[in-house]
Every structure is written in C-alpha cells, then in structure tokens.
Amino acid sequence: MKRKTINILPVLLSLCFMFMSCFSAYARLERMVDGAGLLTEYERDELSDMLDTLSEDDNIDYVILTADDIANEGYADINEYADYYYENNGFMPDGVMLAINMAGSDYCLLTKGECNVKMNEDNLDILESVVVPYLSSGDYYSAFVAFAENSSQLITNTGDDVFLTDSGVADTSNFIEPEYASEPKTLLDKLVSINWPVRIIVCLGIGLLIGFIVTGSMKSKHKSVASLHGAADYEVSDSLNVLRHNDVFLYKSVNTAPKAKASDSSVISSSDTFRSSVNIPSSGSSHGGRSGKF
Questions:
Q1: What is the domain count for the chain?
Q2: Assigned domain for 201 exists
Q3: Distance CA 68, CA 38 (A)
C-alpha cells in the first residue's frame, strides 16, 4: 500500500522568506504616509529614507502626511487631523509635520515640543515660501523634499538667520533645491523598490517553488512499489476460503425526545443588542505651526 506523508518543508521555507521581508517593513516608523497617492512607490521610498535619516541625525521627527479627504476620517480641520496623527503614532516629543488635505487644498505645518520655539514665525514664513509654490504647481515630490531638507536646516541653524537678508526677507539663495528621484534602472533596484505586500507574495512563491523541487526530487527516489487499482489485486490466489456465514443481530438502541411546543420558542429581547462606541481622545501636548491653502 502506498504510504502518504505531508511534507512541511515548502511551508517552512515560505514562512522564513516572508518574515525576513516583513521585518524591514515594520522595523521603522512610517514618516512618509501618502494616503492621497500623490507619489510613485519609488518616490515614497526615497522620501521615507530621507525623513528617517534627517530624523535620526537631528533627534527630531520630520513627518509628511497626505489624505484625499479628511472629512471621510471624521475631521473638519487640518490642524486637528495632523495633531491627532502625530500624537498617536509613536513619534518623538519634538517634531515637524507637513499635512496635506487634497479635497480642500489645505496644508498644515505642525510643530511639536521644542520645535515650537525652534521653528519660529520667521522660519515658518521661510518654509512656506519654499514649499507652498511647489504644492500649488502640483509638484508634490519637490514640495516634500523641500520641506524635509529645509526644515532640518532651519531648525539646526536657529538663531543664525541663515535664510534672511539684511532686510529680513527670505534669501532664496540659501534654500536647498530638491532633486528628482531617478527611477530604478537595475534589476536589484527594481526589486528593492517593490512594496512589502508584493515582496511577501514573491517570497511565498520562491519558498513554495524551492520546497516542491526538493521534495519532488526526494519523492522520485522512493517509487520502488507501484500502486494497484483494485482490492482483488492484493489478494493471494486461493488464500481465502469462506465456508459459511451468519448474520447475527446484536442489539438496538432507541432514543426518544418530547416534541417541542410552540410556547417553548426562544425570544431575543431588544436589550440583548450589542452596542459599541469609539471615543477619540484630544491631545494634551503643546503644538504650534500654521495652516493655509495652496
């Protein structure tokens, strides 16, 4: 008789590839959240790396958040939306955020903690003058790069007025001009730029393929016995002789139950209805910044 076994090697290999892929995806905060889909996948990856590097170097979180319509998430004010997101996603006490609401062409420059002082009114004027024109022209990638790099330079150079002329006007010669992200050209670059859900599917496929190749090779070496089609093929000729047979009745078992009456039917009262509620807490920390239209 053919022996059937379940080989878990393909499953184990798939899980190993999947966890290796997912670890890098969840190991860091999401500082670049493009809910409105304004960027390509490669541009999002480039900005995420940029924000992570600046945040770690300055010990300040730089965050960018976009949304199609904040009203769909229960918010009417872009400032409230930005503050709630920052407070509830594990960011550092000190930070700067750029939030965009596409439905109303709203933007918010949010400052938290010590950045309320470092990003003063003059610096906010300067940051607006370099970021908002890009937003108005629809060049969102350049706007986000300009926000990240110039926010970092404004905060780390607070007090030096490196962005102001003698008359107090913003000196655009000191701005950091954004560079466009080049699309991946090599196969390795393209694989790195793939988002993590696709990586999981690819890794599962690779694991299953390797597992089936290995187990298929092992299986091919163990076909020493061929299976037969019928039970009679396994019987040795003239080895079984039935001389007599009897049908013996052993016992019977009868179970009875009373017929249910109409008055016994269950009634679900209205008091059994499950109700739930969600309370959105308000932020207790200080924040500053400004908002406007682009």
A1: 1
A2: no
A3: 10
